Amino acid sequence: MKAVAETLDVARSNLIDRLAGKTKPRRRYHKAQDAAVVPLITALVTARPTYGYRRITVLLNRQLAAGGTEPVNHKRVYRIMQAHNLLLARKHADRPGLVHDGKVVVMRSNLRWCSDGFEFTCWNGDVIRGAFIIDAHDREVIAWRAVVNAGISGSDIRDMMLEAVEKRFGACHAPAVIEMLSDNGAPYTAKETRIFARQLGLKPCFTPVKSPQSNGLAEAFVRTLKRDYVRITPLPDAATVLGLIAGWFEDYNANHPHARLKMLSPREFIAAQSATA
């Protein structure tokens, strides 16, 4: 018995109790305070069914902080969600081997903006197409446009660029040159758009041909938009959806926890950066 205990690195008394059947079976660990947060977690998962346990933890701790309650560890939230079958289903698909041909992320805001388009279909067949501008550092969606059963035009892109500059700087010209990264779509590469961009203080940059992943940050936002908003929202017709899109972007900017921003939303990250500047 001594040799077995030393090999397993356990106490001999423990082995004796196991052989005698005196040990108690291990049960699922839980805290008495779990009952208080279970309904909060359930409500959050119901409202945001595409969020994993880490983002649910961020939203839960925002609520708890507002009520003057101590925050909850993400491991505890995982355990509670696992016990109540609230975790997201695991995906087992292999990731494609994409080659990244350009550095997108930058070290501070207003050095590089990224732009891309999105498209989805309403239940009645109406097609919504849109475009947006997102900052490559703080991830805030600065401006966007959406149209119904039509394509985004060069005029839409130019209006969006002007709106982005005015929102960020309160003027019609950026104080320093900002790279404007996009794909090679006609609305972006049009001569009028390139000239207008330079007049605003923007430097047009384009991804290599057949390499959309070079604008991966914008591509990632499109996936987030479709996963966390489009797919879980009723889309009866274009009129209804157009009334929802502004709220989607506002919710993303103000509330969406971002892993690359230390689980802060874009607006929270910008406020934190301003406070330390």
TrEMBL record:
Gene Ontology biological-process annotations:
DNA integration
Q: Which GO terms describe its molecular function?
A: nucleic acid binding
Give the highest taxon in the source lineage.
Answer: Bacteria
- What's the protein name? Integrase
Question: Which InterPro entries does its entry note?
Answer: HTH-like_dom (IPR025948), Integrase_cat-core (IPR001584), RNaseH-like_sf (IPR012337), RNaseH_sf (IPR036397), Transpos_IS3 (IPR048020)
Q: Which Pfam families does UniProt cross-reference here?
A: HTH_21, rve
Q: Which residues form a coiled coil?
A: none
Residue stretches making up the Integrase catalytic domain: 92-274
Gene3D superfamilies given in the database record = Ribonuclease H-like superfamily/Ribonuclease H
